[in-house]
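re: that chain from earlier
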Amino acid sequence: MAQQAYMTETDNGGSGPERPVSRLRRLAHRLFGGWRGDPGIWRRGLVTAALALLLALVMVVHSRIPNRLGNLGSLIETFLPWLGLAILALLVLGVVRRSATALIALLLPAIVWLNLFGGLLLSDKSGTGGDLVVATHNVNADNPDPAATAHDVSASGADMVALEELPASAVPVYASALKATYPYHAVEGTVGLWSKYPMSQVQAVDIKLGWKRAMRATVSTPDGLVAVYVAHLPSVRVKLEAGFTARQRDKSADALGEAIADETLTRVVLLGDLNGTMNDRSLNAVTSQLRSTQGAAGSGFGFSWPAAFPMARIDQIMVKGVEPESSWTLPRTNSDHLPVAARVKLDMPS
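^ sequence. v structure.
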């Protein structure tokens, strides 16, 4: 008996499953099908097009936007990557308005944004080598379980761990939890460094606050001496009446930059919560001397704050005289920051 074959009818009268290409064509037809022969596509959306050009201008000249008015320039630079969402919003508006003018104008900010940040998203710069793994974490002074946070950070396998925002009452808890992995440690004020390797010349670094929130130590690694700085710069605030208030942060950044400029060792690692991104020109005293491991060898933006929905990378690992191999964020702990880690190569002379 001949076996009868059955075919499933589709809505468009064909047989078999609908191809994804057909679905895309139908969607494109719905969005753009009525555009042909419509002279209004060039007249509509002029405001959207103007906003697109303004957005491109902001991204191109962000370093020249003055800080005199509420530190506006630094505020924009802190959240500069998020201007990509504004491009997407204008794209949707341009499609809804059926404006060819707006869509063409949007090419400019899209190109500028990709030039600024495309390398972070479209390429994996991380390597597998390296001699030293370092990590830093703002543990939050109100951390409900310091011991668990210490365990989480030590599980990263880092050779050195810097902790910031350490309340005096919690220091013994962190020291006890980390002792088995890190036999050497030092604490200055509210920052500390835990290391698998011996430390010497430990001292506080004056960042013009009146209390200790930065330190320096010489770490004797198997590959030579490394100067390690740990810093927690003052917080910034966004206020309606004052804008982006960061005067004390900026003053402390300048002081930290001076200390690093006076460093006598060739190999330098800076770990800490700088309360600012690499794009913020107010941190130039520091960022002009050191390389960001995330920028040099990380994938993606590496946002670290706030932990619940990271929007900016204000926790930094920066180096001089060593080569970044990889950089990444660690899993969330009980803090409002994510820990960050990096692997570096120490094959350069100390």
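The first strand starts at residue 132 and ends at 138.
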